[in-house]
C-alpha cells in the first residue's frame, strides 16, 4: 500500500473505489471500475457503469490458493456474451486495485491472478478469480516416455512453425459447425500433413481463436480438415485461416518430417510395459546382449 493511500485511509473519511484490469490472451486490455466516473491507471481507461463487482477477497500468506469471484453484467460495450462463449476470457489475467478516486495514483494492488470457470446466466456472468498460487496445484516435471514430451514450436522443441512448407495460409471455403473445414485443394501439402496440428482463425468474427486438428484427409470432394473441438465463434467463407503442420511425437516423424531430431525430447528405445512381464521362450533365445539389438540370427 502506498504511503499516500495509507494516510488517506487513516483520515477516517475516504474516497476509495475498486479498479479491475483484465488482459485477455489475445493481448486486449480492458479496464473496469465500481466508481461512477471513468478513471485512467497505468495507461488503461477503467470504465464506470460496467456492472463488474467482486466478492470479498480471501487471501493468505502461505501457499493456499486465493479464493474470490467476479460478478458482472453482459453488455455490448464491455464484456459480451459472444466473447465469453468464444472463450476469449478463459485464463485472462486480472489485477484488482483499491484506489483513491480523487487521486488514482494513490492505490494498492489487492489481487493478481486469472479468471477461472465462467458461468453465464440471465444476461450476467460469474467467474472464479484464481490467485498466483493456483499453478502450484498442478503437477510439474517431465515423464520418461517413448514419445516426445515437448510441444511443437515451444522452447524445448525449437522448431519454427512459420517455416515455409509447414504453415498454410488459406481462406475458408466450406465450414460445418465450426469444426469441419473443406477445401477444393491445398496444393503443396501431402494428405495428413496437418493432422495433430493447429488451425488458427486470422480474420472475421472468430479472429484469434484456434483449435487442434483431429484429421486431415484427401477425399473425392477435396481436402477435409476436422478439428477436435469446434471454433466457438462464427467462421464464414472467406475468413483467413492459418493451418500449422502436426506432429505425432514419434522419433521418425521428428527426424524425417521436421529434421529436428537433435531436439527430440523422448526416449524411443525405452522398453515398454510388456517387457516387464517377458519370460523365456524357445524361439527367442536370451543372448545376454543389448536390449536394443536383435538376437543373433534373427531379423
What does this structure look like?
This protein is mainly beta. The chain has two domains: 3-135, no CATH class; 167-244. The chain is 8% helix and 34% strand. A hairpin with a 2-residue loop joins strand 3 and strand 4. It is extended. This is Bacteriophage phiJL001 Gp84 C-terminal domain-containing protein. It holds the Pfam family Phage_BR0599. Residues 192-274 form the Bacteriophage phiJL001 Gp84 C-terminal domain.
Q: What is the rounded distance between the termini? A: 73 Å
Largest sheet strand order: 3-4-2-1-7-8-9-6-5
Query: How many structurally independent domains?
Result: 2
List segments where confidence is low: pLDDT < 50 over at least 5 consecutive residues.
Answer: 291-299
The residue fraction in helices comes out at under 10%
Structural class: mainly beta
CA-atom Rg in angstroms? 27 Å
Please state the overall shape, judged from the principal axes of the Cα atoms: extended
* Element string (H = helix, E = strand): HEEEEEEHEEEEEEEEEEHH
Number of helices: 4
Strand content: 25-35%
Domain Bacteriophage phiJL001 Gp84 C-terminal: 192-274
Protein name: Bacteriophage phiJL001 Gp84 C-terminal domain-containing protein
Give the gist of this structure:
Helices cover 8% and strands 34% of the residues. It has helices spanning 3-10, 81-85, 251-256, 273-276; strands spanning 16-23, 29-33, 39-41, 44-47, 53-54, 67-73, 93-100, 103-121, 124-131, 167-171, 174-176, 180-183, 198-201, 210-219, 222-227, 240-244. The strands form two sheets. It has a nine-stranded mixed sheet with strand order 3-4-2-1-7-8-9-6-5. Strands 10-16-13-14-15-12-11 form a seven-stranded antiparallel sheet, with no helix packed on it.
Amino acid at each position: 500500500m502506498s504511503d499516500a493511500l495509507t494516510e488517506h485511509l487513516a483520515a477516517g473519511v475516504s474516497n476509495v473505489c475498486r479498479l479491475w484490469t483484465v488482459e485477455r490472451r489475445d493481448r486486449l486490455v480492458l479496464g473496469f471500475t465500481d466508481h461512477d466516473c471513468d478513471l485512467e491507471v497505468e495507461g488503461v481507461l477503467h470504465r464506470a457503469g460496467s456492472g463488474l463487482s467482486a466478492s470479498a477477497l480471501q487471501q493468505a500468506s502461505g501457499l493456499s490458493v486465493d479464493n474470490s469471484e467476479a460478478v458482472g453484467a453482459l453488455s455490448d460495450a464491455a464484456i459480451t456474451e459472444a466473447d465469453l462463449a468464444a472463450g476469449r476470457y478463459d485464463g485472462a489475467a486480472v489485477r484488482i486495485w483499491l484506489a483513491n478516486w480523487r487521486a488514482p495514483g494513490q492505490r494498492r494492488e489487492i489481487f493478481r491472478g486469472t479468471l477461472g470457470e465462467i458461468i453465464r446466466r440471465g444476461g450476467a456472468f460469474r467467474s472464479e478469480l484464481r490467485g498466483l498460487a493456483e499453478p502450484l496445484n498442478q503437477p510439474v516435471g517431465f515423464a520418461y516416455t517413448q514419445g516426445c514430451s515437448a510441444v511443437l514450436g515451444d522452447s524445448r522443441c525449437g522448431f519454427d512453425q512459420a517455416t515455409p512448407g509447414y504453415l498454410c495460409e488459406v481462406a475458408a471455403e466450406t465450414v460445418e459447425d465450426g469444426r469441419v473445414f473443406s477445401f477444393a485443394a491445398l496444393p503443396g501439402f501431402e494428405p495428413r500433413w496437418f493432422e495433430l496440428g493447429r488451425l488458427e482463425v486470422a480474420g472475421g468474427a472468430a479472429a484469434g481463436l484456434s483449435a487442434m486438428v483431429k484429421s486431415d484427409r484427401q477425399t473425392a470432394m477435396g481436402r477435409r480438415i476436422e478439428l477436435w473441438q469446434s471454433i466457438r465463434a462464427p467462421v464464414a467463407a472467406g475468413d483467413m485461416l492459418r493451418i500449422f503442420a502436426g506432429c505425432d511425437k514419434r522419433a521418425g516423424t521428428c527426424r524425417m518430417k521436421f529434421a529436428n531430431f537433435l531436439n527430440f525430447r523422448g526416449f524411443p528405445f525405452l522398453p515398454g510395459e510388456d517387457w516387464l512381464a517377458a519370460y523365456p521362450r524357445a524361439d527367442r533365445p536370451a543372448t545376454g546382449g543389448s536390449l536394443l539389438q536383435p538376437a543373433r540370427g534373427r531379423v
